[in-house]
Amino acid sequence: MSSFVEIKGVAKEFKLPNGDKNLVLENINLEIRPGDFVSLIGHSGCGKSTILNIVAGLDQATQGYVQVDSQRVLKPGSDRMMVFQNYSLLPWLTAWDNVALAVNKVMRHRSKKERHQLISHYLEMVGLKDAMHKKPAQLSGGMKQRVALARALAIKPKLLLLDEPFGALDALTRANLQAELMCICSTHNITAMMVTHDVDEALLLSNRIVMLKNGPGATIEQILDVPFSYPRIPIEIMDSTNYRQLHHDLMQFLHHQQQIRYIESQITKV
Ligand SMILES: Nc1ncnc2c1ncn2[C@@H]1O[C@H](COP(=O)(O)OP(=O)(O)OP(=O)(O)O)[C@@H](O)[C@H]1O
């Protein structure tokens, strides 16, 4: 199958206020097929969010390029919707109005009735039928993230970008939302990229996991294929030998990166 997202030779260097340069990413190459759910995993600061930001068009690569559906990414667009850990909702608007704001802007050409149906459909899909008219302060963390998901999905993006979407939620809410997201993505064949620190979350949701080495100049160490078919039932797959092996491989990779980071920090002290 042809690639839908192409990340080719991407490097990213930030200029620091004192004039120094911080090379964060180097030669990142990744091809994502339509319907893939790809997770990025690696230690804090290795550049996972930077990759997502470049794909979103919120930041520019210093070298290389990103293409989505054969179009070069140069700026943000409604074909790529991002969901952040901190929900990013407008606090003075209700759940409905937060979703409506995006839908009305992007889907101006649709009739008022159609836009209304879309907003209602996606808020119901994420289980917010009875809380549509509440403001963010009246919603739990899980409910706020549901609004953010509904807002992203209602725009019908080509690519869903998720930056630690469940990082701020308690374990039970996180598990429920993971299951719902998996169901939505597999049913609607949504292509997604997700940054996560959670090995189980990556294994549950993704069909491929990109393992990033530590920076500076982080590169891709390996891409792991996750062979379980969708929809996945956590207690069933977690019990399998295959799952335990993949979990072990990922943990070992992260542990190894942590050791490298420790040794490097000791060397620079000397
Ligand atoms: N605008 C910026 N200017 C300068 N440096 C930046 C900027 N944005 C990110 N960085 C640096 O780039 C590196 C990678 O950051 P990034 O947020 O992509 O890492 P991450 O892997 O997503 O980390 P975490 O898991 O902690 O969220 C870090 O060293 C960070 O300090």
UniProtKB/TrEMBL annotation:
PROSITE patterns reported for this sequence: ABC_TRANSPORTER_1, ABC_TRANSPORTER_2
One GO molecular-function entry: ATP binding
Entry-linked SUPFAM superfamilies: P-loop containing nucleoside triphosphate hydrolases (SSF52540)
Keywords, ordered alphabetically: ATP-binding, Cell membrane, Membrane, Nucleotide-binding, Translocase, Transport
UniProt-annotated location(s): Cell inner membrane
Keyword match ATP-binding: yes
InterPro entries: AAA+_ATPase, ABC_transporter-like_ATP-bd, ABC_transporter-like_CS, ABC_transporter_ATP-bind, NO3_transporter_ATP-bd-like, P-loop_NTPase
Protein's membrane topology: Peripheral membrane protein
Major localization listed first in the record, in broad terms: membrane
Chain ranges of the ABC transporter domain: 5-236
Alphabetized Pfam families for the sequence: ABC_tran
Family statement: Belongs to the ABC transporter superfamily. Nitrate/nitrite/cyanate uptake transporter (NitT) (TC 3.A.1.16) family.
Name this polypeptide is given: ABC transporter ATP-binding protein
